[in-house]
Design brief:
binds iron/sulfur cluster; alpha+beta; two-stranded antiparallel ribbon
Length: 72
């Protein structure tokens, strides 16, 4: 498992944005850890059309904290 820091995709509102209630997304937000091989689609408007897939520890300057993530 990888530790996911605030500012990385796993804690971003756009990570798995199409299915934010999926168990693995919720667990990453709550526990700040993710499997090494877990990837999901970035829903940011500038990336969505490209179907960009990112790992939980990837990142970019468009990071926005997930509602149910950084506050916990
Ligand atoms: S690539 Fe950027 S916008 Fe997309 S999930 Fe990661 S930090 Fe968020």
């Amino acid at each position: 498992m990888l530790t996911v820091q605030n500012g990385q995709c796993g804690m971003c509102a756009h990570f798995g944005e199409e299915h934010p209630q999926e168990r693995q997304i919720v667990q990453i937000h709550q526990k700040h850890v993710a499997p090494e091989d877990f990837v999901d689609e970035c829903g940011h408007p500038q990336h969505a059309a490209l179907h960009l897939k990112v790992t939980a520890i990837s990142g970019c300057d468009a990071f926005e904290p997930a509602d149910n993530g950084a506050a916990r």
